[in-house]
Amino acid sequence: MDSAMLITWVTIVFSGFVSFGFAFFWYRLSLARTEREKMEAKYAAIVLRVDTMDRQLALVGHDVVPISAALQQMLIKELTHFHTPVMDALMARLGPPSTLSEEEEAKLLRLLKEREIDMGDQISDSERDAAHILPVIMKRAKAEALALSERPSALQTVAILPPELDESTGGYPGIPQDG
């Protein structure tokens, strides 16, 4: 074999190795990108799920728990009249949170009892029922507010990252990396 033929064969073999090396490199890069995209999609789904649960928890905390307080506000609205300014002022301070002192609360309960019994035909049966029910609802709303203030938060969010993602892959988007 002459040197020209040898150089040709060496060039062909070298080109083959270089081509194989580049093809293998791009294949691995593509595979890594695909794996990373899958992990990012899983991460995005987890973040979406946690956000959804967070919104649902906020709704539960704001809408379901203070039912007695909502009922209390409805009864106060029905009982508020321009001709009972003292009682109206006390009911406006019922809350939540209630800012009435013990004496003011006792006075409000007495005024409600008077409205329930002494006003005769001046008020409707619905208003009389509201005056009868409000003291019970006040007691329940106060107990609920006290229980909520004493109860520690039971839900904690914990992130568990899979071991496949480490600093060499860049970690998760949106989570700062040390270094």
Describe this structure in words.
By secondary structure, the protein is mainly α. It has 2 domains: 3-63; 65-149. Helix content is 70%, strand content 0%. The chain has helices spanning 3-64, 67-79, 85-92, 102-118, 125-150. Helix 2 runs antiparallel to helix 5 (125-150) and helix 4 (102-118) runs antiparallel to helix 5 (125-150). The longest helix has 62 residues, at 3-64. The radius of gyration is 36 Å and the shape is rod-shaped.
Brief sketch in words of this structure:
The chain is mainly α.
Keywords:
5 helices, 2 domains, mainly alpha, 179 residues, 0% strand, rod-shaped
Q: How would you summarize the topology of this molecule?
A:
Elements: H1 3-64, H2 67-79, H3 85-92, H4 102-118, H5 125-150
Q: Could you give a short account of the major beta sheet?
A: none
Mean pLDDT: 80
The poorly predicted ranges are: none
- The helix-and-strand class reads mainly alpha
Q: Estimate what percentage of residues fall within beta strands.
A: under 5%
Question: What string, H for helix and E for strand, traces the elements in order?
Answer: HHHHH
